[in-house]
Amino acid sequence: MNSILPKKEKINEKNNSKIQTIRIDLFRKNGILILVLLNCVAYPYIPIMKFVLLDQITEITPGESIKAVKNLTFSEEYLHDHFPGFPVMPGVLMLEAMIQLSAWLIRVTDDFAHPIITMKEARNVKYGHFIQPGEKLELEGKILKREGNLTKLAIQGNLNGNSIISARLTMESSDLDTSNPQWAFKQKQIIADYKEMYILLTQNTLNNKQ
Asked: Is 114 part of the annotated catalytic residue set?
């Protein structure tokens, strides 16, 4: 793990105690560069995944499959530029929704054991139709194979019962360096945030079926 900025400290004149302000760390985990802001006085923790592309998880069977929906609305800012006069969801965001769907299935399957789940590979990505404001993208995925920290899944997105996007994704699960107390604390925070987000994504669907 390599720090790109040294830890900054200042002295509190009243009690002569050290107050840690900002520390930014950049580290490489399984070939992926990850930037994390640690111990900021004003913002002690920055929430994870602010760009959520799933509105609701409707079904999930740990270790097997998951279903979710994305309701596209014109209030999403990127639609004003993609494209003017013909707003459609960018293909890369449709793929990102599939990645997030895959990550949720893995998190729940592993009981939120790993804070970091990233896409390692995408194959056979196929697009068949645009999705516009007012339409609902229905996503479904299933696990094909698990080997170590890698999970292979088949994901499909449907519009009005017709497939409009599909892909085979390989996802990778990893942890922070918990030998460092700061990273261990950060890992617990990230996992706690994902658990809270999962409750929000399922509260009107899965909870009602229990």
From this structure: no
